[in-house]
Amino acid sequence: MDIKKMVLGITNSYLLTGDHGYIMVDTGIRNQQERFLSGLKYHHIKAEQIRLIIITHGHFDHVGSLAAIKGLCRNCQVMIHPYEAPRISEPRVAIPPGTNLEGKIISSIGRVSRPILKFEPVKPEILFKEEITLREYGIEGKVIHTPGHTAGSLTVLLDDGQAIVGDLAVNFTRSRPFPPFAEEPSVIYSSWKRLCEAGATTIYPAHGPSFPASWLKENLPAGV
Ligand SMILES: [Zn+2]
Ligand SMILES: [Zn+2]
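Above: inputs. Below: predicted complex with zinc ion.
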């Protein structure tokens, strides 16, 4: 399937074409309405054609414009893992801990910047725990629970092997797809393993360009 990309601030958002409309994955930092609308225009899509917004996890750079975009789409529903739901329905900004020096420095800046990262809360319609199919939207694929970056992080895994992973992996430098921030760093590798075993071939991260899933395999420590 052809995955359409839209950059909303510092975050990639993706669009999947279904039978009767589109699915959007993640909604960028706040105040991205204009970029969202011009991105849709570029792809010849109308906001009302988006039926579902999947939120990979509740960090501000993935949900900042969720309320505004949901409003523009009118009849679309929001899907998220139950662990992340309070992060979008309550007005408290979660700042993830760093996994390396740079991540730790940025994380401490983030904690003092909470007020300017604040976003409008949204009540999600669809919650699930382990796995949910996207067939009812006309998409050959599913959403699976891939914790590590956060406890309730989700991945959209298409049957053809393309995987939209949120922040489970990043592509800033080829050598290290491990995210600079994570709430449960040790769990990230098991989620990578789960993805590879489930047939992932191409990884679409929220930060940086897509890359082959073999990079995850190459970076798995011995014994995982
Ligand atoms: Zn994140
Ligand atoms: Zn992110």
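The longest helix spans residues 185-197.
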